[in-house]
Specification:
heterodimer, A: 292 residues, mainly alpha, MetI-like fold, 74% helix, globular, B: mainly alpha
Chain lengths: 292, 270
């Protein structure tokens, strides 16, 4: 059958995506996969050659890479419980219909729309030796620190900022999840004499499960890609203690111009994201099966 | 009693949220320098708008602002038109390839941008487009998530009006631009606003796809200014930050409902 005029119209409408996908989706994905098996320096394109698995072998033995993986994992595991917990608490508070709830919701949501660069700039000064945190601690009679220059405090300081910046977003998502739980279930539970904790445990949390899973999954993906904060605040220092995977990838590909090795890091990150997401989805299904 | 505790808790969190932002504004209008000796220094004693004048008159910042505006306008316009076109083509013209094409849309949602950043840089460098508006806009004119949002919305719109227009003899282009696009207004508001916010704040790609100062967007310009080896003028930097945030806050306060529905539309499907 020859293509009908319907088929032709449908094809024409999808052309913008087909072109975008081919040029900026499929081609980069395949090209960087190829690069990850090559040596490639854009300043010396003539020296490009296939190296097989050499980049991945180097990666497996690269202490700096594993340090960046460790830092990134620490970042994710140290922020996600706080972000999720605080966001849940705030969503519950707002869902209890407090006076001026609209104002509180708007105010708590504001950091979400502000560029992470600006947030990082503000907090660089908050954490500066002459900055706001030290001024506040001085007022309490506690000695200050150069937070971002201290190997033990730089990463936790950035993590605290991340929680500050991200909570509003997840709060809004959980609020939407709470609103989706039918009111009647609460009413009948109350009639049956269920207290606040019983309702939270037996109605709210089970009802919120899909949203909680979504929040944890996307927050994990986002946390494993931390980059902007590092560029603005520490550039990986002090002593590589804030070097994250994506910052290491950037440094390798665009500073050392090792784009083949950089692509191997990118694919390693992709694999990590894929596996972690799968594990979270599986764990969720498993815990639901146990719960029922 | 319980309500008072709830309000106290909310006030505490709102204060923690807003203090750093007040602090940004405070630094930007301090006339007495930026060294803090204590909590009493948090509000400026000699407020001044000098930092704002310096930043705007310096030229570089105004250029960042112009670049961000141009790029965001083009990318938002591209997404409004192209995401509608593609979603419409996929939702209404079920052809042999449309399942596969929808698969590529969903597939792209799962590819982290770090995987494509090196090749995208190489591609733009080969084409000689580094440091041009082309590099900052072309790859972002139609985003997979926006296609998905419009596609979902189209499932709730019956095709009756389109069919009626066709029976009246309207061509496919007329049907799309005159009948379908107006129907998409609610979802296009969401697409436009969220695309604006994401693009205005976008850092990674503009960071690697620009080389010279005059092509930087606001986030890149501010970040690189703060990386300079010279001592940083925090008053001016914060004034620049405040100016860069104003458009986003205006959009946020005007369109909070659309922003929230954009967030949750992606989430609820799961």
């Amino acid at each position: 059958m020859a293509p009908s005029s319907q088929e032709r119209a449908g094809f024409i409408f999808t052309i913008p995506w087909l072109v975008t996908f081919a040029a900026f989706g499929l081609f980069p994905v395949l090209f960087s996969l190829g690069l990850s098996f090559s040596r490639f320096n854009p300043a010396r394109p003539g020296a490009t050659h296939w190296v097989g698995l050499a980049n991945y072998a180097e990666l497996a033995a690269d202490g700096t890479f594993w340090q960046s993986v460790g830092n990134t994992a620490f970042f994710a595991m140290g922020t996600i419980p706080f972000t999720t917990g605080i966001a849940l608490a705030l969503a519950l508070l707002l869902h209890s219909r407090p006076p001026a709830g609209g104002f509180f919701r708007t105010a708590l949501f504001v950091p979400t729309v502000i560029s992470l660069v600006v947030v990082s700039l503000i907090f660089r000064y908050v954490y500066a030796p002459i900055g706001m945190l030290n001024a506040f601690l001085g007022w309490l009679g506690i000695g200050g620190k150069a937070w971002l220059q201290d190997p033990n405090f730089a990463l936790p300081a950035i993590m605290a900022m991340d929680v500050w910046a991200a909570v509003g977003y997840y709060m809004i998502l959980m609020l939407a999840g709470l609103k989706a739980i039918p009111r009647e279930i609460y009413d009948s539970a109350e009639v049956d004499g269920a207290g606040w904790w019983a309702r939270l445990w037996h109605i709210t949390l089970p009802g919120l499960r899909p949203m909680l899973l979504f929040v944890v999954v996307i927050n994990t993906i986002r946390s494993l890609q931390v980059f902007v904060e590092i560029v603005v605040m520490t550039q990986g220092g002090p002593l590589n203690r804030t070097l994250t995977v994506v910052y290491y990838l950037y440094e390798t590909a665009f500073y050392k111009l090792r784009m083949g090795y950089g692509s191997a890091i990118a694919y390693a990150l992709f694999a990590i994201l894929f596996v972690v997401t799968l594990v979270q989805l599986r764990a969720f299904r498993f815990s639901r099966a146990v719960g029922e | 009693m319980k309500r008072i505790l709830i309000i106290l808790a909310l006030v505490f969190f709102v204060l923690t949220t807003l203090i750093p932002l007040v602090w940004m504004v405070s630094l930007s209008v301090r006339g007495e320098g930026t060294v803090l000796r204590g909590v009493s220094d948090l509000l400026p004693r000699q407020p001044t708008l000098d930092h704002y004048r310096e930043v705007w008159a310096g030229g570089a910042f105004a250029r960042f602002f112009l670049n961000s505006s141009i790029v965001a306008t083009l990318v938002v316009a591209g997404n409004l038109v192209f995401a509608s076109m593609v979603a419409y083509g996929l939702a209404r013209f079920r052809t042999r390839g449309s399942k596969l094409v929808m698969g590529t849309v969903l597939g792209m949602l799962m590819i982290p941008k770090q995987v494509t950043m090196v090749p995208l840089y190489v591609l733009m460098a080969r084409l000689g487009l580094i440091d041009s508006y082309w590099a900052l806009t072309l790859p972002f004119l139609v985003d997979a998530l926006n296609i998905f949002l419009v596609y979902q919305f189209l499932q709730t719109v019956p095709p009756d009006l389109e069919d009626a227009a066709r029976i009246d003899g309207a061509g496919e282009a007329v049907v799309f631009f005159r009948i379908v696009m107006p129907l998409l207004a609610p979802v296009l508001a969401v697409v436009g606003i969220n695309t604006f916010l994401l693009n205005w704040n976008s850092f990674l790609y503009p960071f690697i796809l620009t080389a010279s100062e005059h092509m930087r967007t606001l986030p890149v310009g501010l970040a690189l200014y703060a990386q300079g080896q010279y001592s940083i003028d925090w008053g001016s930097l914060m004034a620049g930050s405040v100016l860069s945030v104003i458009p986003v806050l205006v959009v946020f306060f005007l369109f909070q409902r659309q922003i929230v529905s954009g967030l949750t539309a992606g989430a609820v499907k799961g």
